[in-house]
Amino acid sequence: YQTEQRTPPANQPFLVIDEMRQVMGVTPDVLSRLAPYIIALPNDTGLNLNTVSEPVLRSLGDWMNPDIAAKLIAKQKMQPFENQSSIYLELQRLGIPDDTLSQLKGYYPLTSNTQYFLLNAVAEYNHHSWVMNSLLKRDTGRVVTMGRWLTDHVN
Hints:
With 155 residues, the chain is of the alpha+beta class. It contains five helices and five strands, in the order H-E-H-H-H-H-E-E-E-E. It is 29% helix and 24% strand.
């Protein structure tokens, strides 16, 4: 970082994905290709298997091969998972070893629902446009705004 006169990323979880620009090797092109699949959320946020895309599933580890990922995507479309137990039972049925499932539960919980939502509103003024991004959290019957940030609109 010193040789390129760049500020290294903070030693903490990202608050917004634009902070990834500070990571060595993350070019604007790399970030634009990753952007549809990533978001900055609290560490304890689970991955909703009823809405996850195949590329995100495949990123969970080598054990998530194309065949297992495709079967999970098909399952989410035909009969969504009802709860976390049904997810882990399906993974067992697909042959995922118990030690892998234990590690997964401890590291990154898989869920059947979503707590966080990203709202993007585009505003235009004087031939320029911006996106107001709001991170919302569903919390016991109410919605809480966790953060807002403005970004340039890219067509």
